[in-house]
Specification:
This protein is 41% helix and 13% strand. The protein contains 16 helices and 14 strands. Helix 3 (51-67) links the parallel strand 2 (43-46) and strand 3. The structure holds FE3-S4 cluster (F3S).
Length: 430
Amino acid sequence: MHLTSEEEKMLAGEEGYGVQKNMQILTALGEIFGAEKMIPVTSVQVAGVSYYNLGDAGLEYLDTLANKGARARVNTTLNPAGMDLENWRELGIDEDFARKQELVISAFVKMGVTPSCTCTPYLVGNEPRRGDHIAWSESSAVTYANSVLGAMTNREGGPSALAAAVTGRTPCYGMHIEKNRKPQVHVKIDTKLTTVPDYGALGYAVGKKIGPKIPILDGIEAAQVEQLKSLCASIATYGGTALFHTDGTASRENEKPAETLTITRADIQGALRALNDEAAQVDFVALGCPHCTLDEIKTIATLVEGKKVTREFWICTARQTMKEAEEMGYAQKIRTAGAKFACDTCMAVAPLKGRFSVLATDSAKACYYGRGTNDFKTRIGSVEECVNAAVTGNWSWCEAERYPADEPKDQRWSHMNLSPSLEALTRTRE
Ligand code: F3S
């Protein structure tokens, strides 16, 4: 791999151990993937922040880098940590875990990383422009950055993303090369999608059928931010792709691929059924996977107003978004009802195993981690259905069974607040 003289100096240790170590990681990665050179990055997002996943070995690694001069050169933000950094006691996190998690965050801060602790960095100021080369590691955010924002990033691991932050570079391979971003499957979506779970189910259905291939998703031009982030999370989780095109936007200049797939209402219902376990009662409700937008919080506030929740109910979001919700008066309504904000963290990276047994959520990705990481049974439904479960504790039906394919859904979600659509987003970014 060709390195510039500045990169050679980093590798030789002329900028200290912290930079040298990270340049070694990137050159090794570049050699493995056949990169010919490094490219500068404008933005980094680092996953692997929860002490639950890092353990003592991860903490020691971060500490060493921080103490040996590793510093971020570009705008770098963090994925969720294992706890709300301020209100961890309220969420039932024990003191030992909290102390270790604080040390992890301190090491990142010492390296100049912004402790935003969110999987939706694009909602809180880390929003790359179309064509920017970036190094992000949270899978849902990677897919959102490539597919919705039009930036270019591989799905980095935590260490390689941090290495990109410290050196300002990433090896040029994969999603950084235009010819690797061509669509491989034309997916015709032959059913109306309305809810956030619908889009999660779409990601599940497509991901299971095509794996990591790059699709054109034909028929989601009206999707809104909340639906798109759910789709990005789900398609990355269940299929592994880091990029999809949409018929009206990024793929306009691309030829339609020969391989085709049609997604019908039966596929969406099948996905919803697969994500729903048998369980009439829930003991944990979590919304915000990926982290809630302000509009989602507004919807939750409307739905819980005047009610009292009887089950542990987390609204996972970025701290910045929660503060905006406080300014708007939404947060107070949510807290009055007994629900809790889980800022800086989420239901997948917090140490929850053994505390709950049935999770209700609107997120297909949360079902995956709820089952895989925490051994929860899962129930997926709309935000209204989840709020109802938090209040009554009951989940007596499954959306896929309750709503037949021909039932018009639009009227049922009339008071759902959603952010701009993909079409609008694309217009404003052109
Ligand atoms: Fe975000 Fe946690 Fe879901 S990191 S995408 S809320 S699993």
